[in-house]
Amino acid sequence: MLLHAWLLLVALTTLTSGLNPGVKVKLTQKGLEYGRELGIASIQQKLKTIKLPDVSGSQKVNPIGKVSYSFTNMHIINVGLPQSAVSLVPGAGIKLSIGNAYLSLNGNWRVKYLKFIKDSGSFDLSVSGLSITTTVAVNSDETGRPTVTGNNCVASVGSVTIKFHGGASWLYNLFKDFIAKALRSALEKQICPLVADAISDVNPYLKTLNVLAKVDEYAEIQYSLVSSPVISTTSVDLSLKGEFYNVGKHQEPPFIPNVFSMPPESNNMLYLGLSSYTANSAGVVYTTAGALSLYITDDMIPASSPIRLNTQTFGAFIPQIAKHFPGLMMKLLVKAAKSPVITFESSNATITATATVTAYAIQVNGTLSPLFVLNMDGSVSAQVFVRGTRLAGSVSLNEMDLTLGTSYVGDFQVKSLDRIFQMVLKLVIIPKLNDQLAKGYPLPTIGKMKLVNTQLQIMKDYMLIGTDVQFSG
């Protein structure tokens, strides 16, 4: 499982998107070192499963002639992998090297010679100077998920020492070198297939990648793999699609991803760059779904507020409302007129939005009488943070501008309503928006992945998340 976790981390770095990705990921040397620690522990467990077949045959041994032998019930007692390293091979993958490894096993021996003389006992075999090298190649399957394979594995045994117990020492000393050579060959043939199996065993876990991550009833984010990673001598650099879609309807937004470059950071294991394209595609999705609209009634205004949603309050600024609709409660419909636009500048994220505000008087029979329609342009500052494996945030009002769209009650000074609508924004709309933003949006994850030591910076045209990673299970 530990090797699985490491290769899941490696595979995560293969997610890409088109010519200009919405999200980029960088796996650093520090991340590779963490993966090496996990991978070595898992390979060590895998090598403990080595099963050597019984060995039998005959050998001419001077001066006694032909000796028939068999070695049975061989099993691994211990495996040690004290030295290992990972390195990046541009264009090929990730090379794992293991050196000065050792293992030990024991078993039973039996010989027959001079046709009728038999002898038997047990033996211990120690292997030292074992070395293994293999390359992990990362590709993609038809679903856009990564797959891994082990390539170019080479295993060699440095020295083999065999110690026999029981029987006549003069006898087995005559052929122990031959037996050691045979067992060395059998071991070398076992190691690389086991390493390849350990790598292949990861692929079912790669199916846990949230290629299409559900956000809520309106939106999902696609993190599919569309091209191979770029492997340099210092990092694995990749690109993810990073695009929001309406649930069940994948329609591209009317703009393309902006170009941005990841900085050469190396303090964390993993870096994610999320562009303004990703955020703005979310704005298109929620606008298209009609989710950016809200009816506001008086019971949504805090009881302590002196401003109420009724014709008496509004009549103080627009007398004709109080005259023609006396003593009635009111309802406001705030609706996005177009998709909001999110911009990232150094240390600053801003959302600009255009909406319409339609005011209604609620008649005694429940019907709505339209009073006026305002055009509202505003901007908010966004604070963004990582919570678990989700990207969350909150906003605060910067500015708001109101203009009259349509009036059903005659001319009036729109400016006089600024105080009321700033209150509506601050006490109702922004808190509801913050409640939604606090739930967060899923980041690309694989398996039981945990982000630790996470920092987030707002850069030009993108957000940069630096994080370390832990896997469990």
Structural commentary:
This protein is α+β, with helices and mostly antiparallel strands. The chain folds into two domains: 177 residues, Bactericidal permeability-increasing protein, domain 1 (Super Roll), CATH 3.15.10; 260 residues, Super Roll (Bactericidal permeability-increasing protein, domain 2), CATH 3.15.20. It has eight helices and 23 strands. Strands 2, 3, 4, 5, 6, 7 and 8 form a seven-stranded antiparallel β-sheet that branches. Strands 15, 16, 17, 18, 19, 20 and 21 form a seven-stranded antiparallel β-sheet that branches. It has a six-stranded antiparallel β-sheet with strand order 11-12-1-14-23-22. A hairpin with a 3-residue loop joins strand 4 and strand 5. It is rod-shaped and about 125 Å long. About 1% of the residues have low confidence.
